[in-house]
Specification:
The complex is a heterodimer of chains A (712) and B (102). Chain A is mostly helical and 712 residues long. Among the domains of chain A are: 283 residues, no CATH class; 86 residues. Chain A is built from 28 helices and 4 strands. A two-stranded antiparallel sheet of chain A has the order 1-2. Chain A has a two-stranded antiparallel sheet with strand order 3-4. Classes of the chains: A mainly alpha (712), B mainly alpha (102).
Chain lengths: 712, 102
């Protein structure tokens, strides 16, 4: 099979799995997950083959695998869709395929496959556990998810959207995949739809990302109207880029390229949960944990960053847009990190750290550090998927404890209810530690260190000191809250009976953790800068060479400097150390000095948005749409119609029906007949000779008339 | 030979006498007599037109014979009715027999 055909086929298995499960196999749990995982495996296999083949091509950036077909006729040209694998796509495909496969596998264990049906589980609610009898003793074990097959169908569709987005060669199919993922995100956040919080979160996520998507679609439309094409390779040709850079857009002094870039970037702000559209991501943690891992850490939010990276040649044309991108990214990185410090829900901490890390990537792009952004995107996908799956494993273990004690008031996601899980769940602990250290940028061994270090080096090397300091502070906080999380969750003593009885999760959950932790460590080594003291040059900086080849102008690696390296070391180790020292002895939220209301309530963003957007929208809906438009105008018009028609009806009845039809035609004909009858009865004498006389007279008269008028 | 018009005038006179009898006589038997006169005036017409038309075609004569037959039948039915009425109502005056009215 040619590579191009293979690329076309990569997104297909998951969507086929979706339809198969939805239409045919949804009653069988085993069959459904086999199909879904099998489809993910096929896509993974295809991606790996494409990836390996891509590695073998020299100057892949100039001669990518591409293939396109005519899709929609647009006058005398065609809107083309197609696939493209250049170095950026290849590395993205690599991490997407791996994380998707791991998460599919993990979902089997997470949804308690093989466990009995729950005692009183309902569709739309998380499973509550089932009572089983063993050796005469009754005890409660986790029960299988009631909507098991549905989950696999949805993540299958989601995987289709992601693969479509990654392999597309144009903005249109990229946007299609983007929206499919938005839909799946909605469906999966609201997977436990009987919980009001999950419903609200799903709506919030959908609405918030929609704001970004509308701007993105505007950007796409603008781009199409200016250039007449949506294909990346065509847009990035020197000629079109030059045109875009030189035509002013007439909006605040942006060039056309700058304004299009800005609009597309707003799409990313929504999708990747950047400030100010970040509010949906923490709430999205209402979904099942594999969803949080897949959609809200590893793939969908990465897709937002991927889109900006993809459009980098366009966005980088305008200095102003780049400044905005860098500012938003750096601000978000620090801003989200400060909120994460005060969160107690294990998944919410990770959610804010995701926002923060995505901010790192965006900031890196904003200062032109293309390769560093890609590098961090990949390493982040691996270690954040790992962390989320690890947190899911922790929650799962805690739920086990909750089922054991039967005390359902204990929140299995609150870190202050945990503690000492290191010994109960060793595999989860070690893999979570690896993920956490990668997130913190623990020096030398973890992937996060190398990618974050590269961002620092670029920021410093490009002289963006403000970005450098902001990101440095954010990185320090990242290490701090990560260590806080690890300390509260795994170290020390168990703080509740539930944590005491937590259990290690089944192999379907731990194996993905182990595989992802290999990447969380190992992936960093492909991007070690050449001039790094000691290690530089031992392994060639493959990533820089490969990914850098995507751009027309190969980016030069920044010169080595001790300042960013030392910063990176200090913030990582300092943050981790401080986190451990501070939280070593803390047992209750009351002892935690950082439980500031301001931070816990996320700078009141939800309240502010509620006041600015949600309530006015409700007010508008209630007063303007409902009371004024609907009741006043529409109902008013309808009420005019009602009496009007009735009046018309009355008029017709009184002035036409009653007098004309009833009186004249109806009664009148009867009366006329009666009257004539009354008159004519006089000649009905019963005397035969009078009848004959009359007959004779009429005969004579008619005969005479005929004679005079006809014959004569 | 006597011209055709004489027969026709005779016939019309006979018809008129019959008609007058039908319309003016009060006795029902007399009215039936009037009807017989009118039928026989028609027979005169039929015989005259036959004689002055195509003699080989005897349809006129046949028709006259049929009229005789019908007239005989009619008179017998009519006289029977008159006798029946007389037995029930004790009168043969046509004007008294007026119960066939509204």
């Amino acid at each position: 099979m040619t590579t191009e055909t293979l690329i076309w086929l990569i997104p297909l298995p998951p969507v086929l799995a979706f339809f198969l499960i939805v239409l045919f196999t949804n009653r069988s749990k085993a069959l459904s997950h086999t199909i879904a995982v099998g489809a993910a495996l096929l896509s993974w296999l295809g991606s790996m083959i494409v990836f390996v083949r891509a590695l073998g091509v020299e100057h892949l950036g100039e001669h990518p695998f591409e293939s396109s077909i005519n899709w929609l006729p647009t006058g005398d040209t065609w809107l083309k869709i197609g696939v493209l694998v250049d170095p950026l796509t290849a590395v993205t495909l690599f991490f997407v395929a791996w994380t998707v496969l791991m998460i599919f596998l993990y979902s089997i264990g997470y949804h308690n496959y093989g466990q009995p049906e729950g005692d009183h589980d309902h569709k739309g609610l998380p499973p509550h556990g089932a009572t089983v009898e063993e050796h005469g003793n009754k005890h409660v074990v986790p029960s299988v998810e009631p909507m098991y097959a549905r989950f696999f169908a949805f993540i299958g569709l989601f995987a289709f959207g992601m693969f479509t987005l990654v392999v597309s060669d144009n903005l249109l199919t990229l946007f299609v995949g983007w929206e499919i993922m938005g839909l799946c995100s909605y469906l999966l956040i609201g997977f436990w739809y009987a919980k009001p919080s999950a419903r609200d979160a799903a709506v919030k996520a959908f609405m918030t990302t929609r704001v970004g998507d509308v701007f993105m679609l505007l950007g796409i439309a603008y781009l199409y109207s200016v250039t007449g094409t949506l294909s990346f390779r065509t847009i990035f040709s020197e000629e079109i880029l030059h045109t875009l850079a030189t035509i002013p857009s007439g909006f605040l002094g942006f060039s056309t390229a700058g304004l299009i870039g800005l609009l597309l970037f707003i799409g990313t702000v929504g999708k990747s949960a950047q400030f100010p559209l970040h509010v949906w991501l923490p709430d999205a943690m209402e979904g099942p944990t594999p969803v949080s891992a897949m959609i809200h850490a590893a793939t969908m939010v990465s897709a937002g960053v991927y889109a900006v990276i993809r459009m980098f040649p366009l966005i980088s044309l305008d200095e102003k847009t780049m400044t905005i991108v860098a500012f938003i990214g750096a601000f978000t990185a620090l801003f989200a990190a400060t909120i994460a410090v005060a969160q107690n829900d294990i998944k919410r901490v990770l959610a804010y750290s995701t926002i923060s890390q995505l901010g790192f990537m965006i900031a890196a792009l904003g200062i032109g550090a293309y390769v560093a952004a890609v590098f961090h995107l990949i390493t982040h996908a691996f270690f954040k998927a790992l962390l989320f799956l690890g947190s899911g494993s922790v929650i799962h273990g805690m739920e086990h404890g909750v089922l054991h004690t039967g005390n359902h008031d204990v929140d299995p996601q609150d870190m202050f209810n945990m503690g000492g899980l290191k010994n109960k769940m060793p595999i989860t602990f070690w893999t979570f530690l690896i993920g956490g250290f990668a997130l913190s940028g623990f020096p030398l061994v973890t992937a996060g260190f190398w990618s974050k270090d590269e961002i620092f080096a670029d920021a410093f090397g490009h002289g963006e000191i403000a970005v450098f300091i902001t990101l440095g502070s954010a990185a320090f906080l990242t290490a701090f809250y990560t260590m806080r999380q690890i300390t509260l969750t795994f170290l020390g003593e168990a703080r509740t009976a539930e944590a005491e009885h937590a259990q290690e999760t089944p192999w379907t959950m731990t194996v993905p953790l182990i595989i992802l932790s290999v990447f969380a460590v190992g992936y960093g080594w492909v991007g070690i800068p050449e001039h790094f003291p000691g290690l530089g040059g031992l392994v060639p900086n493959w990533l820089h060479e490969f990914v850098g080849g995507t751009l027309a102008e190969h980016p030069e690696p920044v010169e080595f400097s001790w300042v960013p390296l030392l910063t990176s070391l200090v913030v990582a180790l300092g943050g981790l150390g401080l986190g451990y020292v501070v939280y070593r002895d803390i047992d209750t939220p009351a002892e935690d000095k950082l439980q500031i209301d301001f931070l816990k309530r996320k700078y009141f963003f939800d309240e502010i948005y509620d006041a600015i957007f949600v309530r006015p929208a409700y007010w508008f809906a209630e007063n303007v749409v409902y009371r004024f438009m609907d009741q006043g105008v529409i109902d008013g018009i309808l009420h005019l119609f009602g009496p009007g028609t009735q009046g018309l009806g009355d008029g017709i009845r009184n002035y036409f029906d009653l007098p004309v039809i009833n009186r004249f035609f109806g009664d009148g004909s009867a009366e006329a007949t009666y009257w004539f009858g009354g008159k004519l009865r006089a000649i009905q004498t019963g005397r035969i000779q009078q009848y004959l006389m009359l007959t004779l007279i009429i005969f004579v008269l008619v005969g005479a008339a005929l004679y005079f008028f006809v014959l004569a | 030979m006597v011209p055709l018009s004489w027969y026709l005038i005779f016939s019309a006179a006979l018809f008129s006498i019959g008609l007058f009898g039908v319309l003016s006589r009060r006795n029902a038997v007399a009215i039936l007599l009037g009807v017989e006169l009118m039928l026989n005036s028609v027979n005169v017409n039929l015989a005259a037109f036959w004689r002055y038309g195509d003699v080989a075609d005897i349809a006129g004569q046949v028709f006259a014979v049929i009229v005789f037959a019908v007239a005989a039948a009619e008179v017998s039915v009519g006289l029977a009715l008159v006798i029946s009425v007389y037995r029930r109502r004790n009168t043969v005056i046509a004007d008294d027999l007026d119960m066939m009215k509204w």
